[in-house]
Design brief:
298 residues, alpha/beta, 11 strands, globular
């Protein structure tokens, strides 16, 4: 995993024979240039509940930096067509929001904790990887706010790969944006207009941890419905984004189902701490999920 952390949306589709057709998302070449490998830290973080992440106010779209802050000619997006004319994955490489980055690297800046992590390694190989990882986290934690605003996280290798799923609704040919990424006017916006000339039906915040780019999508497509959990809706309200359907209760889930149409089945897990909404995209028999396979949900 060539990332220090990533927000991940999975698209695992199957055909009549049950064989997976959707390619596994991988980093683009531009991402590999700015990302670093922190496999030990990623493994450790996935086992620690990041409650602060769930409650954090989402950033304003203009504050989000991507690979273009280092190279204006770079393309932070990669579009993958999983099912022709029906289903796509969009990869977006960005710098994490400073508040989120603090959760990623801040705790590892403690010398005492770094020592405990390294001492807890099972073998020399794991110990060597951990030593490199925690040192990189400490370097990122030492960056000043002015450096961060200029893209220092990316320069030092702290990058996020974010994945949005785009699914077409057969009833009206509009598309749904599941776990949206940053929408710009020069690359992704024109691409979406090309594949979805009828417009965007809905923007789905797929869990309380997936709110970072919802405002960007709503500003680009003000006519689209916003679907989110109750906690995500509260977070979005802090940045002046209203939620049209809240799927946290049975009534709201039914409203979201009606809004999306017959092409989707909606799935929530009772007791899920991040209130994730997963979809089954019926036309291609595809399970669309954000963090379902992380932790011990299944």
């Amino acid at each position: 995993m060539s990332l220090s952390w990533m927000t991940y949306a999975t698209c695992a589709g199957g055909g009549e024979d049950g064989e997976a057709k959707a390619p596994k998302p991988t980093l683009s070449s531009s991402a590999r240039e700015v990302a670093v490998e922190l496999p030990y830290v990623v493994k450790l973080l996935l086992s620690i509940p990041q409650i602060g992440t769930y409650l954090m106010k989402p950033p304003e779209p203009e504050s989000i930096k991507d690979t273009r802050v280092l190279d204006p000619e770079s393309n932070p997006y990669r579009m993958i067509e999983c099912e022709i004319g029906k289903l796509w994955i969009v990869e977006y490489i960005s710098s994490p929001d400073p508040g989120f980055a603090d959760l990623i690297v801040g705790g590892f800046a403690s010398a005492e904790l770094r020592k405990k992590i390294i001492e807890g390694c099972k073998n020399d190989e794991e110990r060597k990887v951990a030593e490199i990882d925690v040192e990189k986290c400490a370097q990122c934690d030492a960056l000043s706010s002015s450096e961060i605003k200029k893209g220092a996280y990316l320069k030092h290798g702290l990058a996020m790969a974010n994945y949005m799923i785009v699914a077409r609704c057969p009833e009206d040919e509009k598309v749904v944006l599941y776990s949206p990424v940053q929408i710009d006017k020069s690359i992704l916006g024109p691409w979406l207009e090309k594949i979805a000339p009828n417009g965007i039906k809905a923007i789905i915040s797929s869990s309380i941890a997936h709110t970072m780019f919802v405002k960007s999508a709503k500003l680009a497509y003000p006519e689209a419905l916003v679907i989110a959990s109750d906690v995500a809706a509260q977070k979005l309200a802090h940045i002046s984004v209203s939620t049209d359907c809240c799927y946290s209760d049975s009534e709201g889930l039914a409203a979201a189902k009606r809004a999306l149409g017959s092409a989707f089945e909606l799935i929530t897990l009772p007791g899920d701490p991040i209130q994730e909404l997963d979809l089954i995209y019926i036309p291609t028999k595809t399970l669309i999920t954000s963090d379902l396979f992380y932790g011990k949900k299944l």
